[in-house]
UniProtKB/TrEMBL annotation:
Its cofactor is Mg(2+). It comes from Psychrobacter alimentarius. This is 8-oxo-dGTP diphosphatase. Residues 13-150 form the Nudix hydrolase domain. Keywords: DNA damage, DNA repair, DNA replication, Hydrolase, Magnesium, Metal-binding, Mutator protein.
């Protein structure tokens, strides 16, 4: 084989490790433009570049942002959003993606810069335009946009048993959530009752403003009915993701280890959230995330990692505490959502410890 062919083979096999910086100030996000001559050229990109040998992803992201934009981010909170592998055919990349919020002073200083330090065009775009793909990005970034769609707070419904003293618990559950859920919130419908589809469906019809996460194995096909168009939106569109409990996630993982068992089919239609409590379940979640990317299925967009603190709903579960939670969060290839004894105001603490959102029941409505 010629040395050129050998070289081609080598370059196809080698995975390029890249640090990617999602830099934003509130809803304004910074994009660069990739020159036509570059790999994946003539597209927008997040600031970033190759991770050097002996450099961590975080060190690389600080260096790349300084080299490309002159913005010094070493004192900002740098949160790992996720890691993903993408095969472009001519090149394989492993992206380590970080989210960095600039201070108002940093943003004011750089918001009018039209060119970066390497002569590349820079542009600030609003989040809605970014997520609706008004700015073409490399294909691998599709997953990053899905990760960014996850809001900083997620409300979780009370279990049906919370209303067990009421004469009609299902009506009480429905009325409580209909009246109390915050406008336009993302809500994880955790009813903990096998026969809950009808009340979840009714809540969705009564509150067309909310986006919902539902159990991956519940049957919501009735929401596809032609009649269920509320405020110009089809009710089924309210389902933004499916959810896998810790138990289901581990069952899926066990089934892929055991070649004689049939692997559980998990939603081909929606992105996924999973629940994790320890390193083993995060490992399973990482396998699930990479399997879905390989199969070009909607990605895993978040993992609820719990319990951080003592909770009233799970009084016997040993809390992880912030330090352990943080080291587990670092292992995950997807955005981490803090859960267990938190309030929405604890988002800054969650960011500092490596999470991107907080979730909960009582204080989140
Ligand atoms: N910076 C950046 N790179 C991205 C993004 N999405 C994505 O797939 N990539 C890919 C494109 C490139 O193959 C690689 C980035 O490496 P790079 O910026 O050092 O690549 P380059 O072409 O400038 O480097 P070179 O080979 O010319 O030295 O990661 C993104 O949002 N930002």
């Amino acid at each position: 084989m010629s040395s050129k062919a050998n070289k081609n083979r080598e370059s196809q096999k080698a995975i390029v490790n890249v640090a990617v910086a999602v830099i934003h100030h509130k809803d304004q996000y910074l994009l660069g433009f990739r020159d036509a001559a570059q790999h994946q050229g003539n597209r927008y990109e997040f600031v970033g570049g190759k991770i050097d040998n002996n450099e961590s992803g975080e060190q690389a992201v600080i260096r790349e942002v300084a080299e490309e934009t002159g913005i010094a981010i070493q004192d900002n909170t740098i949160v790992k959003l996720g890691r993903l592998h993408h095969d472009y055919g001519d090149k394989q990349v492993s992206l380590q993606v970080y989210k960095i919020e600039l201070t108002t002073a940093q943003y004011e200083q750089h918001k009018h810069c039209q060119y970066g330090l390497e002569g590349q065009a820079l542009v600030w775009v609003n989040k809605r335009d970014l997520l609706t793909e008004q700015y073409p990005l490399p294909a691998a970034n599709k997953t990053i946009l899905e990760w960014l769609s996850v809001p900083t707070t997620i409300a979780i419904t009370y279990p049906l048993t919370h209303f067990k003293t009421h004469s009609d618990p299902r009506s009480a559950w429905l009325q409580y959530h209909q009246e109390n859920l915050a406008s336009k919130s993302w809500v994880y419908m955790r009813v903990k009752d096998a026969m809950s589809e009808d009340i979840v469906g009714r809540l969705m019809r009564q509150r067309p403003d909310i986006s919902v996460i539902v159990s991956h194995d519940a049957d919501y096909s009735f929401l596809m009915s032609k009649d269920l168009v509320v405020e110009n939106k089809h009710t089924s569109e309210q389902i933004v993701a499916h959810h896998l409990t810790h138990t289901t996630l581990m069952q899926w993982f066990d089934s892929i280890q055991d070649s004689s068992a049939s692997t559980q089919l998990i939603s081909h239609t929606h992105p996924l959230f999973v629940s994790c409590h320890d390193a083993a379940s995060i490992n399973a979640a990482n396998h699930l995330a990479s399997t879905r990317l390989q199969q070009q299925l909607p990605p895993v967009i978040g993992a609820f990692l719990s319990p951080i603190l003592m909770t009233q709903t799970h009084p016997h579960a040993e809390p992880l505490g912030w330090e352990t939670w943080s080291s587990l969060a670092q292992l995950a290839d997807m955005p981490i959502i803090g859960l267990g004894g938190l309030s929405p105001a604890m988002i800054d603490q969650a960011l500092t410890y490596g999470g991107i959102s907080v979730a909960g029941i009582r204080q989140f409505y």
